[in-house]
Amino acid sequence: SGYPLSFTVSCDNLAYEDDARNIAASAGSFNAAAQIIQPLSPVANLRGPLRTSVPDMVPLWIDWDNLQASFKLWWPLPQRISLEAEGLSGQTDPADDTDPVQLFSAGKASGQLQPNGDDIDYLGSFGDLEIDPGAIGGRVLPALDANGDVTLKNGVALIGTQVKSLRGQAIEIRNLDLSSGTARITVSGPLSVDAEGLVNADLMIRLKDPKAVAAILGAAIPEQKSQIEQGFSALAVLGNEPSMPLKVVRGKASLGFIPLGKIKPVE
Questions:
Q1: 90-112 as b/e, with b when 16 or more CB fall inside 10 Å?
Q2: What is the rounded CA–CA span in Å between residue 69 and residue 46?
Q3: Pairing assessment for the beta strands 23-27 and 50-53 based on DSSP bridges
Q4: Which of 12, 83, 98, 156 could form a cystine bridge with 94, CB 3.0-4.6 A?
């Protein structure tokens, strides 16, 4: 007797296939529950691994210790979608007998999407991200932490469409913060790609402990190590937390008064 306080949907596994576009994905068990008094705010748990196969991309195997999603549903779009994961890792998923390539691992990661008028806002973070050198051509990066607050312009109109190009897209970076130890880079400002694929941006770059940042970049890009060290040594006169504008005009980039070269058109 009595009234149910919640209802639950469970399944042993999830799978999706689109033969026309040659897309496939699968994952482990799925459990979602919602309280009777809040039926439009379910919470779901998904077990890995997530295996994906998409044309022109290497097949992926992504796994985690725990992944939880929460939703605030509405029509025609959810008001909010949130994801939290612990013990996240990724590797390639070869179809033959070749060994998989380890890609990354992260102690934790989270993300939240919500519509904002015609745009879509994204809040996200990750901690203890380690990128395997084999995934980035043998380059070495330390463990990284990051958080971001970004708006995809006209994002609502892009939902349900098959976006094949970055051309014509624009984002507003309110805050993008990447750190490792005492080294920190913070970026903010607008960035867009025009119809010809040329990047335009008006960003502000803030550094904390430039020497530590230079050491990380020099290890990651050894062929540019001397130029990186020279450039960052010039920043010493600006103190330990300098800031400077990064401007890109039709693909031509400059950091303050220092020209950085040209960015190739993107597709």
A1: bbbbeeeeeeeebbbbbbbbbbb
A2: 8
A3: antiparallel
A4: 98
Helix, strand, coil fractions of the chain, as percent rounded to 5: 15, 50, 35
pTM exceeds 0.90: no
**Cβ atoms of 141 and 132 closer than 8 Å:** no
Task: Evaluate whether 65 touches 55 at the Cβ level (below 8 Å).
Answer: no
Name the domain count of the chain.
1
Residue 230: phi, psi to the nearest 5?
-65, -45
Residue of 74, 66, 164, 170 lying closest to 110 (CA atoms): 66
Is 238 within a domain?
Answer: yes
List the Cα angle 158/70/111 in 5-degree steps: 60
Residue 249: domain span: 54-262
168 alpha-carbon distance from chain centroid: 20
Domain-embedded: residue 37:
no
Judge whether 27 lies within some domain.
Answer: no
Helix (H, G, I), strand (E, B), or coil: what is residue 214? helix
The answer to whether residue 92 sits within a structural domain is yes
Q: What is the pLDDT along the chain (267 residues), one digit of tens a residue?
A: 456 688 899 999 999 999 988 999 999 999 999 998 899 999 999 999 999 999 888 999 999 999 999 999 998 889 999 999 999 999 999 988 889 999 999 999 999 999 999 999 999 999 999 999 988 888 899 999 999 999 999 999 888 777 778 899 999 999 999 999 999 999 999 999 999 999 999 999 999 999 999 999 888 888 888 888 888 887 777 888 999 999 999 999 987 777 778 899 998
DSSP label of 93:
-
d(CA 128, CA 133): 15
